[in-house]
Design goal:
Elements (H helix, E strand, L loop, with lengths): L12 H4 L12 H6 L5 E5 L6 E4 L8 E5 L4 E14 L4 E8 L4 E3 L3 E3 L42 E3 L12 E3 L6 E3 L4 E9 L17 E8 L3 E8 L10 E2 L4 E4 L11 E6 L10 E2 L1 H6 L6
Antiparallel strand pairs: 1-4, 1-7, 2-3, 4-5, 5-6, 8-9, 9-16, 10-15, 11-12, 11-14, 12-13, 13-16, 16-17
Length: about 290
């Protein structure tokens, strides 16, 4: 059966419009050249909508980001996979880009008539299982929690594809207010990036959470809010109320488009990989639905 790759996702409309949009910095020609990988240029041609990038060569695979119609991409090789009918051609070829993402060749005008085939990927006996998370504590009587932003989730907590992802990605637009999920005290206001500054858009070649805030709550709970567009509006030691403004959504640090990366940690500070819990399950236990 022919499948149209472009346009539909299982996400809400708000989610589809935002997360990981300007991915081009991570697939630029200099980045490819640094790894000495021969690449071929191509241009996304979708008829106006953005072209989805996928973790694997399938329209059902996790969305890795997107590029605008008319944007340039750098192709490393091609694989044969799901057949797609697109705006350029109908084909079962998928292009692997310099950043590891895949796009259907049905939506790409290529500089080369023939792209080399990708080398077969090593087959693992089974995917690595995410590390177990600690138990989510029961709600404390009288505590009140809410959403940091009203947006759909586009990347979950410690998925098989991202076992070290200690939070969830919420697809809010740039400059969306980020609110404290509960009352507490600000314990960290940090610019966290492997190079450069947090005052510019980040990309996937960087490491770090960009501009972020941590808030300590009652019961040893810590929440973390990452990738803010500019320095947060709160300071260390400041007391905040439920729903108080902390900063604004951006894409600083290791990020390829505006969104909020939100984490919840238990067992008191410091917030670490070992004490992170699923924010969605944590909030659901407190009567808050994403």
């Amino acid at each position: 059966m022919k499948v149209r790759h472009q346009g539909r996702t299982v996400l809400a409309a708000a989610a589809a419009a935002s997360l990981l949009s300007p991915l081009l910095p991570a697939v630029s020609a200099p980045a490819a050249a640094a790894g000495k990988v021969p690449t071929f240029t191509g241009t996304a041609q979708t008829g106006g909508t953005r072209l989805n990038l996928r973790r694997t060569p399938s329209a059902a695979a996790e969305r890795f980001g997107s590029v605008a119609n008319g944007a340039k991409v750098w192709i490393v090789c091609q694989v044969t996979a799901q057949r797609i009918t697109g705006t350029v051609r109908t084909t079962n070829l998928w292009n692997r880009l310099a950043n590891g993402a895949y796009v259907s060749d049905a939506y790409v005008v290529r500089s080369a008539a023939k792209i080399p085939a990708c080398a077969p990927a090593p087959v693992a006996s089974r995917p690595p299982a995410p590390d177990p998370a600690p138990r989510i504590p029961a709600p404390v009587k009288g505590e009140r929690w809410g959403l940091p932003v009203s947006a759909g989730m586009v990347s979950g907590f410690r998925t098989v594809a991202r076992p070290a992802h200690d939070g969830v990605d919420l697809s809010a637009k740039r400059d969306t207010p980020i609110l404290a999920a509960a009352a507490g005290t600000v314990i960290r206001v940090v610019c966290n990036v492997s190079s450069g500054t947090c005052d510019v858009d980040g990309n996937r070649t960087l490491r770090g959470c960009g501009w972020y805030v941590e808030v300590q709550h009652a019961g040893g709970i810590v929440t973390r809010y990452c990738h803010m567009v500019r320095r947060p509006v709160v300071t260390v030691g400041q007391t905040v109320a439920l729903g108080q403004l902390l900063g604004h959504v951006g894409t600083s640090g290791s990020s390829s488009g505006p969104h909020l990366h939100f984490e919840v940690h238990v067992d008191a500070a410091p917030a670490t990989h070992a004490n992170a819990v699923d924010p969605i399950a944590f909030l659901r236990a407190r009567g808050v639905q994403l």
